[in-house]
Specification:
By secondary structure, the chain is an alpha/beta fold. The chain is built from 17 helices and 13 strands. Strands 1, 2, 3, 4, 5, 6, 7, 8, 9, 10, 11, 12 and 13 form a 13-stranded mixed sheet that branches. The termini are far apart.
Amino acid sequence: MLAEDKIWVAQGDNPCYLLLNQANRHGLIAGASGTGKTVTLKVLAEGFSQAGVPVFMADVKGDVTGMAQAGELTSFIQKRCADTFNLDPAAVKFQGCPTRIWDMTGGEGIPVRVTVSDMGPEILSRLLDLTEVQEGVLNIVFRVADDQNLLLIDLKDLRAMLGYVSEHRSDLTTTYGNVSPQSVGAIQRALIEVENQGGNIFFGEPALDLNDWFATAPDGRGYVNVLNAAKLIQTPQIYAMFLLWMLSALYDRLPEVGDLQKPRFVFFFDEAHLLFDGMPKELGDKIVQVVKLIRSKGVGVYFITQSPSDIPDKVLAQLSNRVQHGLRAYTPAERKSVRAAAESFRPNPAFDSEEALQALGTGEALVSFLDEEGSPSVVERAKVLFPQCRMAAADAAVLSQVSSGQADLMAKYGTAVDRQSAYEDIAGIKAKAQADAQLAAERAQLEKERAEFEKQKAAAQAKAEKQRAAEEAKEQRRREQEAAKAERARERREEQIRKQVNRQVGSMLGTIGREASRQIVRGIFKGLR
């Protein structure tokens, strides 16, 4: 309940007020199951809303939606008004808060989506429970995606990118480091588990714009942003991962504003132990840093858990505003936790804090908030005020009204968008590579066929040349044979002619000789005569 510049949270011997100008110094709401943590959460949240401060909270048990509906004046509240809070019940204004309901699991609320790139390798490694080596590979995947302008939006983009890096690991090792197929396979298997838990719904676009959580209603009250986590809490890895991302995103994106009269935004982190279970040291150190510094950006962070021991000491030391409900101590470890919780308060001489913690009833708490000087106040044993909204979950009619009032955000976030990103780009790269390979193969085949053709052509030409040469040689031999035959025929004719001439000459000479001899004889005889 807002009282000027402070929220009236509980009443002990003195009223317990959370000062708005100290509210960004963070806080803790702790206590065993059934001790009243959810009521305290609602009282604080509606106080911030009334002060114009938007808040975020997860609805783990399904009853936080009652923030949207006005409470009722029950006999129990009437008695508390008279006995504890000195209030006139008729003067109490029961009202719901301006509420928006969000959902990460595809339910009826405004869809909440985050891109893989925004989540980053560090938080994803926490989600996937990766080893140090596997986290290193995931960092390489993100770096390659950035360097090659490949957008990582949803899980299929990340899967495609893992496959791409694995296929090209020999080319990437020199620049980025070793990528083992075993690590890639382990990450792919972890992604299957995340998909089975609904991660394929959560990762995508349109991505959540945190500015939509900083809004105030037309009447000036801050919106209470309720994340429907009743189903989500069954997948604690995704739940813790999302809240861790949100905390980191608030830190990274908000400007420094210094000390304000009231926070810009308050973040309630229910089931906070889920964040720190198995937290790697490096990530734990980052959370400590964020919690330390985010208050200078006007953000208050309130952790809700069963025991303060669920939260690391370095983080616990930053939680200055505390509401500690009852704790049970049945074992030595539980008694140690009770003692540690009691010793974290500034003592009140009126009671023993350790004994009080084990005796607190439902709705009672040890309360210590920061005073005007920023110092913890003396602890009060007090009864937490009742919320002005409904204690239980909201009625269906009220939820329907809430849904109608967030039509503008449903128009913005309601339909998932699957634009071109790493998956499509890598598919295109593979298709181009396949086309290039096919083209190269076709060119190689053409070159092979051309070479074979040229070979056959050369062989044919050689054969033709050989055949031509053979024919020429044959023709030459024929001509030579004919020439030789002609020569022999000529020689035979010449021989015949010589013989004929010789015969004729011989005959002629014989005739001439005989005639000459006859003439000579005649001459001789004539001379004799």
